């Protein structure tokens, strides 16, 4: 590795050393409490797939470049940056899903997600990050810049969805089925690319007679997956600008955990509320704005808490509230809520493929699903949905993996 | 020559170690304090209504350890309470502290506290030799625990084994109290003049190891003493 790159990597590292990161680097007592927390370790078990194992890759580089004393460096196994150690940096960044389950084991609450953030940024500096993620992030940013030119096409595509939305919910005459650019809307709904994330949501919001508007932008934030804070902000910024322009009351993020966490917790104060679609459905039920038919969902149903909206967002109860209005046969996974096992697909792993590793590292999740005996496995995050569907196939779980929005839309009762 | 070395260890080196330790801690804490905060919240949900008291309680009672490894938790709690009591019992040696009766030859806990702490350290050390923990441990982890073990062991000999003579204590709390009091008042007196006998060398060993420990402390992960609360605060919002 040449000296210039080394210097740049150290610079990147130091820029990422926030107060929290510094404390995380210096205070881990290597007590090993977090070892059992990680689904990848629980499924393998290989020590390199533990929170402390991954963090040590980064901490040993820290010891070399940010600490003094030859003896201390030796005793702390400091290592110089090299191609080999950049591979270990990659391992830290892309074998961890950033689920932060380990944080609930660690006596100090060390956040492996922050350490993973350092690793991801180092990879970007070394031009070694998964290119698919950078490319997708850049595409999102480019779309923000050329939005005016693509609006007509987008509106035509939205129009095309009308028939399918109406199949789920027959709206009143003259009502916009998939409304766009609605000034002063109550809800700006930010979907994903793909009609599966628009049709059920549109049907539900129309059923609730909501004044809503579909965002021109997709919710997913590849900037966050690749670990680039500037791009993360820029991608989220497109939606924030749109929400401000339309003067909406709330931005409702579709079933995408990362998009929700970024919008709610990583982009500062905003003049509008940010909620998940699960919360919106729960609100409609509570206010009696939609009615659901329990007979549409026979058989046992279980729920997977997406890490990004549950542990990192606190959205534990609304999806359960909705499910309890969809079925009398809801069963919890063990463990659940804050202690739930990650599906194994977060942190960009689903987007970059990595199927072998995803399947191997999430055996514990598959076992957990199997143990419920459920026929339907519901979740509220696209990333989790993809990973759980892969697990379903790989481990022969025999469940049907469904979105909460889809289950709800199918059970809507039209009076 | 030996006497001189003993004097250096028991008096000037103590001052040096304490000053080094305090300055080291201050510098480390200041460095972290002036680093910009993380750009976004690191809290874990459900979040707490009172993050500060909850962080303090969390740092002191370690609920996550209790939940996930109760045996380890018992040793950790015994160790930390033990260390707190040991600090207190060292202060209690000073004539103006009177937690234990002034004329008692014993330290607080009659030597038992030190033994419990030693056992806990031994447990921390031994558990590092097995399983995945061995793979993530670095030499500094073993050495630090070994150093602590030696400090505690030598302390045990002073506070406990010291009393196993036919006539009870060879050296009493009052003897050590006089030495500590001298240090406090910068008398620069040689403790060898008041403390005598075969056990003196154990005292010197204990003080030497404790000095070493104090000097290492600011560069070690024992700094978590000062960061455990702010760290716990981060995950509580
Ligand atoms: S954040 Fe999740 S995946 Fe990463 S080390 Fe912690 S438990 Fe494992
Ligand atoms: S539980 Fe926390 S302190 Fe212990 S090894 Fe893991 S990250 Fe380090």
UniProtKB/TrEMBL annotation, chain A:
InterPro entries, A to Z: 4Fe4S_Fe-S-bd (IPR017896), 4Fe4S_Fe_S_CS (IPR017900), Cys_rich_dom (IPR004017), Helical_ferredxn (IPR009051)
Lineage of producing organism: Bacteria, Pseudomonadati, Thermodesulfobacteriota, Desulfarculia, Desulfarculales
Keywords, in A-Z order: 4Fe-4S, Electron transport, Iron, Iron-sulfur, Metal-binding, Transport
Protein name: Reductase
Amino-acid biosynthesis as UniProt keyword: no
GO molecular function, one term: oxidoreductase activity
Pfam families per the UniProt record, alphabetical: CCG, Fer4_8
Record domain 4Fe-4S ferredoxin-type: where: 19-48, 86-116
SUPFAM superfamilies: alpha-helical ferredoxin (SSF46548)
Transport in keyword set: yes
TrEMBL record, chain B:
Highest taxon, organism lineage: Bacteria
Transmembrane segments: 6-27, 72-91, 111-130, 142-161, 197-217
Single GO molecular function: oxidoreductase activity
GO cellular component: plasma membrane
Keyword Membrane annotated: yes
Key word Membrane present: yes
UniProt keyword annotations, A-Z: Cell membrane, Membrane, Oxidoreductase, Transmembrane, Transmembrane helix
Entry-linked Pfam families: Nitrate_red_gam
Localization per record: Cell membrane
The NarG-like domain, residue ranges: 77-235
InterPro entries: NarG-like_domain (IPR023234), NarG-like_sf (IPR036197)
Membrane topology: Multi-pass membrane protein
Protein's recorded name: NarG-like domain-containing protein
Organism name: Desulfoferula mesophila
